[in-house]
Amino acid sequence: IVTKRLLEQSAEAEQSFYQMEEQRLQAEDHRREAEHARELHMLQVLGQMFSSIATRNPVATATANTAMPPALNTTESTMQPGVPMSTSGRMRHVLERSFSLGTAARRGMDDILPLVKNIVPPLTSKKHKGQDGRIGIIGGCQEYTGAPYFAAISALKVGADLSHVFCTKAAATVIKSYSPELIVHPVLDSPNAVEEMEKWLPRLHCLVVGPGLGRDDKLLKNAKEVIEKSKARDIPIVIDADGLWLVAQQPSVIQGYQKGILTPNYMEFTRLYEAMHHEPLDSSDHQRSAMELSVAMGNLTVVLKGEEDLITDGNKVILCRQEGSGRRCGGQGDLLSGSLGVLAHWAYTSSADMTKSVNPSVVAAFGACSLTRQCNRQAFHKHGRATTTTDMIQEISSAFKKLFES
Ligand SMILES: NC(=O)C1=CN([C@@H]2O[C@H](COP(=O)(O)OP(=O)(O)OC[C@H]3O[C@@H](n4cnc5c(N)ncnc54)[C@H](O)[C@@H]3O)[C@@H](O)[C@H]2O)[C@@H](O)CC1
Ligand SMILES: Nc1ncnc2c1ncn2[C@@H]1O[C@H](COP(=O)(O)OP(=O)(O)OP(=O)(O)O)[C@@H](O)[C@H]1O
Predict the structure, then answer these.
(1) Where are the domains of the chain?
(2) CA 184 to CA 163: how far, in whole Å?
(3) Closest CA relative to residue 337, chosen from 135, 187, 46, 110
(4) Do residues 148 and 140 lie in contact, with contact meaning Cβ atoms separated by under 8 Å?
(5) 66-88: per-residue pLDDT in tens?
């Protein structure tokens, strides 16, 4: 009886710890939003000062116009979420982003990139560990230990404060040995896996499901249940790799969840499309197919990776054509999904002013695609054909600065 009472007391103490922790996190989020708003105000004041100086100087005016982009066209579709449709007869918005060094690059600065810059949180001495993001990766099994590592370390290097990996017991020691910076939980195949993972959810800002998850039914079932619990907490959920295999089998796991982001490569996309539409994919029009998939999934954001990355929430399509290289090695998609986890958290905790009311998932996805491709480009410049994902991860710092902090 004494042991039982002790156990009950410890469960109550744990419960109240999580409640307090959650309240504290919410307060932090509010503080950060207010900080962002103050910064925006200062920037606006500076902008006004700059343009009043510029009006008196025509040369400066021209510069100011290229530096201060016009608002994006965010025309909304009249389609209802969750209703499959044909895109014919519907106005499609295609915003193109080109980073080649010609005049097109300047034009590209007018669209999503400034919004990505806006969501990057300032580094100040007022913050404590955890405020810039605690990201959870669900994946890592006997066969695949690299993928969850790549995703988790990328999240840290992009700027998350803490990166957790929830993997199988066999994968855990291996992943820990790659990096002391990751927090690794060997729980994904444990008998009480869902409870083990659920207790961490109040501390996580975003979940990335799939890198190195494998296709074992038990692991997929556990991942599915954690996705359900995370939806109830309203956190962004990025689904990649084998997580997309799960979605193709059971779309309802994420269908209609507005903070869900799918990041398929072409094969994964084909599987998802055919599962949703019960007909072969028409490979002649990727933009249309991606929009159709997004709408069928309830206007989730879909990132179709390839020669150009295609990002859509079913309302419009944005292309990321950041120059990469011809080198394709395993793990590049994991860099993307880990980075996207952090950026999605930042985008969803930024005010609507910061994202100019553009879908935060789309802003985050554009940031992650641009960053991955820029890392690929820089790594290829140094290592050529020998470029690996590890080389790309080493470029995250300078690629991030170049794209989002200059
Ligand atoms: N080091 C690691 O641990 C790595 C593990 N990975 C994991 O491996 C698991 C399986 O991932 P896969 O990507 O192999 O998935 P699949 O087993 O579905 O294989 C997809 C296949 O499609 C091919 N493909 C990709 N893009 C294509 C295109 N545009 N046209 C034609 N074929 C195309 C690929 O070569 C691959 O053979 C996932 O859990 C993933 O996370 C990968 O992330 C790679 C790195
Ligand atoms: N042909 C291409 N040209 C330039 N960049 C590309 C090309 N194909 C893919 N990429 C870029 O590589 C990154 C990863 O895409 P990829 O298709 O390799 O994902 P993946 O197959 O899911 O990766 P992983 O090996 O991690 O599972 C994306 O940022 C994408 O933009």
Answers:
(1) 109-119+129-405
(2) 9
(3) 135
(4) yes
(5) 333 333 333 333 233 333 334 33
- By residue count, the chain amounts to 406
Nearest CA owner, ligand 1 atom 36: 267
Pocket lined around ligand 2, Cβ cut-off 6 Å: 241, 265, 305-307, 309, 324, 328, 330-334, 336, 369, 372-373
Residue among 265, 329, 337 whose CB has most ligand 2 atoms within 8 A, to mutate: 265
| Nearest atom, ligand 1, residue 266 CA | 29
ipTM of the complex: 0.95
d(CA 361, CA 347): 7
Residues 310 and 286: beta-carbon distance below 8 Å: yes
Please tell me the number of the ligand nearest to residue 212's CA.
Answer: 1
Homologous superfamily of 109-119+129-405: Ribokinase (3.40.1190.20)
DSSP letters, 183-196, are EEEE-TTSTTHHHH
Low-confidence residues of the chain, pLDDT below 50? 57-93, 96-109
Q: Helices (H) and strands (E) in the chain — how many of each?
A: 15, 10
The residue with tokens 């080389």 is 391
- Distance CA(375)–CA(399), nearest Å, equals 6
Q: What's the pTM value of the predicted model, to 2 decimals?
A: 0.80
CA of 50 to the centre of ligand 2 (A): 41
pLDDT of residue 56: 53
Mean pLDDT for the chain overall = 85
